[in-house]
Amino acid sequence: MGGGDDPRGSRLIMTGSEARHCGDDAVFARDLRDEGEPEAEFNPGIAERFPRKNAAAGALVRDERGRILFVCPTYKPFLEIPGGLVEDGESPLAACRREVREELGIDVPVGRLLVVDWLPEHGVWRDSLQFVFDGGVLSREQIGAIRLATDELSRFEFLGIEAAQAQLRPSKARRIALAHQAFLTGEAVYGEFGRKLG
Q1: Residue 129: which H helix or E strand, with range?
Q2: Residue 149: is its pLDDT beyond 60?
Q3: What proportion of the chain, given as a percentage, has pLDDT over 70?
Q4: Are 166 and 182 in contact (CB under 8 A)?
Q5: Residue 39 and residue 25: Cα distance in Å, rounded?
Protein backbone atom coordinates (compact mmCIF):
# COMPACT_ATOMS: atom_id res chain seq x y z
CA MET A 1 0.00 0.00 0.00
CA GLY A 2 1.40 3.39 -0.73
CA GLY A 3 0.38 6.92 -1.55
CA GLY A 4 -1.44 7.11 -4.86
CA ASP A 5 -1.02 9.52 -7.74
CA ASP A 6 -3.38 12.43 -8.00
CA PRO A 7 -4.64 13.67 -11.42
CA ARG A 8 -2.08 16.50 -11.43
CA GLY A 9 0.76 13.98 -11.29
CA SER A 10 2.22 14.84 -7.88
CA ARG A 11 2.69 12.03 -5.38
CA LEU A 12 0.29 12.02 -2.42
CA ILE A 13 1.47 11.32 1.11
CA MET A 14 0.28 8.08 2.67
CA THR A 15 -2.18 8.80 5.45
CA GLY A 16 -2.20 7.11 8.83
CA SER A 17 -5.38 5.26 7.85
CA GLU A 18 -3.64 3.72 4.80
CA ALA A 19 -0.60 2.48 6.72
CA ARG A 20 -1.03 -0.37 9.18
CA HIS A 21 1.15 0.25 12.18
CA CYS A 22 1.07 -0.26 15.93
CA GLY A 23 1.80 3.27 17.08
CA ASP A 24 -0.58 5.99 18.12
CA ASP A 25 -2.64 7.09 15.07
CA ALA A 26 -2.51 10.80 15.91
CA VAL A 27 1.26 10.75 16.45
CA PHE A 28 1.77 8.73 13.25
CA ALA A 29 -0.36 11.19 11.24
CA ARG A 30 1.58 14.14 12.70
CA ASP A 31 4.91 12.45 11.92
CA LEU A 32 3.80 11.89 8.31
CA ARG A 33 2.70 15.53 8.01
CA ASP A 34 5.96 16.76 9.55
CA GLU A 35 7.94 14.61 7.10
CA GLY A 36 6.69 16.89 4.32
CA GLU A 37 6.10 16.13 0.66
CA PRO A 38 7.99 13.14 -0.73
CA GLU A 39 11.09 14.18 -2.63
CA ALA A 40 10.84 14.09 -6.40
CA GLU A 41 12.59 11.30 -8.26
CA PHE A 42 15.99 12.55 -9.38
CA ASN A 43 15.72 10.19 -12.38
CA PRO A 44 12.18 9.50 -13.62
CA GLY A 45 11.14 5.92 -12.89
CA ILE A 46 14.07 5.16 -10.58
CA ALA A 47 11.87 4.36 -7.57
CA GLU A 48 10.26 1.50 -9.50
CA ARG A 49 13.69 0.13 -10.42
CA PHE A 50 14.99 0.01 -6.82
CA PRO A 51 15.34 -3.47 -5.35
CA ARG A 52 12.54 -4.73 -3.14
CA LYS A 53 12.84 -7.12 -0.22
CA ASN A 54 10.24 -9.38 1.25
CA ALA A 55 9.75 -9.27 4.98
CA ALA A 56 8.17 -11.71 7.39
CA ALA A 57 7.41 -11.47 11.09
CA GLY A 58 6.86 -14.19 13.67
CA ALA A 59 6.35 -14.52 17.40
CA LEU A 60 8.35 -16.53 19.92
CA VAL A 61 5.41 -17.77 22.01
CA ARG A 62 6.03 -20.00 25.03
CA ASP A 63 4.06 -22.12 27.46
CA GLU A 64 4.44 -22.00 31.24
CA ARG A 65 7.23 -24.60 31.03
CA GLY A 66 9.27 -22.40 28.67
CA ARG A 67 8.70 -24.52 25.58
CA ILE A 68 8.23 -22.74 22.24
CA LEU A 69 5.00 -22.84 20.21
CA PHE A 70 5.49 -24.31 16.74
CA VAL A 71 2.87 -24.68 14.03
CA CYS A 72 2.83 -27.21 11.20
CA PRO A 73 1.94 -25.62 7.84
CA THR A 74 -0.11 -27.69 5.40
CA TYR A 75 2.00 -26.43 2.47
CA LYS A 76 5.56 -27.27 3.60
CA PRO A 77 7.33 -30.11 5.44
CA PHE A 78 8.91 -27.97 8.18
CA LEU A 79 7.67 -26.47 11.43
CA GLU A 80 7.31 -22.71 11.76
CA ILE A 81 6.63 -20.24 14.53
CA PRO A 82 3.32 -18.33 14.23
CA GLY A 83 3.61 -15.42 11.84
CA GLY A 84 3.82 -14.63 8.16
CA LEU A 85 4.57 -12.14 5.41
CA VAL A 86 4.47 -8.40 5.96
CA GLU A 87 2.04 -6.82 3.50
CA ASP A 88 2.64 -3.58 1.62
CA GLY A 89 1.98 -0.59 3.86
CA GLU A 90 2.13 -2.72 7.02
CA SER A 91 4.73 -2.54 9.78
CA PRO A 92 6.47 -5.78 10.82
CA LEU A 93 4.93 -5.57 14.31
CA ALA A 94 1.43 -5.04 12.91
CA ALA A 95 1.97 -7.96 10.51
CA CYS A 96 3.10 -10.21 13.35
CA ARG A 97 0.07 -9.39 15.47
CA ARG A 98 -2.29 -9.86 12.50
CA GLU A 99 -0.73 -13.14 11.34
CA VAL A 100 -0.63 -14.65 14.84
CA ARG A 101 -4.29 -13.74 15.39
CA GLU A 102 -5.26 -15.20 12.00
CA GLU A 103 -3.28 -18.41 12.52
CA LEU A 104 -4.10 -19.12 16.18
CA GLY A 105 -7.52 -17.50 16.56
CA ILE A 106 -6.44 -15.71 19.75
CA ASP A 107 -4.77 -12.41 20.58
CA VAL A 108 -1.22 -12.98 21.75
CA PRO A 109 0.63 -10.20 23.62
CA VAL A 110 3.26 -9.64 20.89
CA GLY A 111 5.86 -7.35 22.39
CA ARG A 112 9.47 -6.37 21.91
CA LEU A 113 11.70 -7.16 18.97
CA LEU A 114 14.09 -10.07 19.53
CA VAL A 115 15.75 -10.65 16.15
CA VAL A 116 16.12 -9.14 12.70
CA ASP A 117 17.63 -11.79 10.44
CA TRP A 118 18.53 -11.48 6.76
CA LEU A 119 17.79 -14.50 4.60
CA PRO A 120 19.56 -14.81 1.22
CA GLU A 121 17.81 -15.63 -2.03
CA HIS A 122 17.00 -19.35 -2.17
CA GLY A 123 15.57 -20.93 -5.29
CA VAL A 124 12.56 -18.90 -6.46
CA TRP A 125 12.40 -16.99 -3.14
CA ARG A 126 13.88 -13.48 -2.97
CA ASP A 127 16.10 -12.45 -0.12
CA SER A 128 14.15 -11.19 2.88
CA LEU A 129 14.22 -9.73 6.34
CA GLN A 130 12.81 -11.96 9.09
CA PHE A 131 11.59 -10.27 12.28
CA VAL A 132 10.99 -12.25 15.46
CA PHE A 133 9.07 -10.63 18.32
CA ASP A 134 8.46 -11.80 21.89
CA GLY A 135 5.05 -13.48 21.96
CA GLY A 136 4.94 -13.94 25.73
CA VAL A 137 3.77 -16.92 27.75
CA LEU A 138 0.38 -18.53 27.17
CA SER A 139 -1.66 -19.89 30.04
CA ARG A 140 -3.42 -23.26 29.83
CA GLU A 141 -6.67 -21.40 29.19
CA GLN A 142 -5.17 -19.46 26.29
CA ILE A 143 -3.69 -22.64 24.83
CA GLY A 144 -7.11 -24.30 25.11
CA ALA A 145 -8.65 -21.39 23.19
CA ILE A 146 -6.33 -21.78 20.15
CA ARG A 147 -8.30 -22.37 16.96
CA LEU A 148 -5.91 -22.97 14.07
CA ALA A 149 -6.50 -21.59 10.59
CA THR A 150 -6.99 -25.08 9.13
CA ASP A 151 -6.53 -23.89 5.55
CA GLU A 152 -2.89 -23.13 6.48
CA LEU A 153 -2.03 -25.18 9.56
CA SER A 154 -2.59 -28.82 10.52
CA ARG A 155 -1.42 -28.77 14.16
CA PHE A 156 0.59 -26.99 16.82
CA GLU A 157 2.88 -28.19 19.57
CA PHE A 158 5.18 -26.82 22.23
CA LEU A 159 8.77 -28.04 21.98
CA GLY A 160 12.20 -27.18 23.29
CA ILE A 161 14.67 -25.90 20.69
CA GLU A 162 16.62 -29.17 20.63
CA ALA A 163 13.48 -31.28 20.22
CA ALA A 164 12.27 -29.10 17.33
CA GLN A 165 15.58 -28.87 15.50
CA ALA A 166 15.12 -31.93 13.26
CA GLN A 167 11.79 -30.49 12.05
CA LEU A 168 13.18 -27.05 11.18
CA ARG A 169 15.27 -25.74 8.33
CA PRO A 170 18.78 -25.15 9.70
CA SER A 171 18.56 -21.36 9.27
CA LYS A 172 15.18 -21.31 11.06
CA ALA A 173 16.60 -23.34 13.95
CA ARG A 174 19.49 -20.88 14.26
CA ARG A 175 17.10 -17.87 14.10
CA ILE A 176 14.82 -19.30 16.79
CA ALA A 177 17.85 -20.04 18.98
CA LEU A 178 18.97 -16.41 18.49
CA ALA A 179 15.47 -15.20 19.42
CA HIS A 180 15.44 -17.36 22.54
CA GLN A 181 18.86 -16.04 23.54
CA ALA A 182 17.71 -12.46 22.90
CA PHE A 183 14.68 -13.09 25.10
CA LEU A 184 16.93 -14.36 27.92
CA THR A 185 19.48 -11.53 27.67
CA GLY A 186 17.02 -8.70 26.99
CA GLU A 187 19.05 -7.54 23.96
CA ALA A 188 17.77 -7.57 20.39
CA VAL A 189 20.00 -9.34 17.87
CA TYR A 190 20.88 -8.80 14.22
CA GLY A 191 21.65 -11.94 12.24
CA GLU A 192 22.31 -13.13 8.73
CA PHE A 193 21.04 -16.57 7.73
CA GLY A 194 20.50 -17.28 11.42
CA ARG A 195 24.01 -16.35 12.52
CA LYS A 196 24.47 -13.45 14.94
CA LEU A 197 26.52 -10.55 13.65
CA GLY A 198 27.64 -7.34 15.27
Answers
A1: strand 128-137
A2: yes
A3: 90
A4: no
A5: 23
CA angle 120, 126, 132 (to 5 degrees): 65
Other beta carbons within 10 angstroms of residue 160's beta carbon come to 12
What separation in angstroms does the CA of 107 have from each of 20, 59, 79, 82, 84?
A: 17, 12, 21, 12, 15
Dihedral of alpha carbons 165, 167, 169, 172, sign:
negative
For 13-59, what is each residue's pLDDT tens digit? 344 446 788 888 888 888 888 888 888 878 888 888 888 889 999 99
Angle, vertex CA 152, rays to CA 151 and CA 156, nearest 5: 115
- The whole-angstrom separation of Cα 85 and Cα 156 is 19
For the chain, list the domains and their CATH numbers.
1-50 (no CATH), 54-197 (3.90.79.10)
Backbone angles phi, psi at 40, to 5 degrees: -70, 150
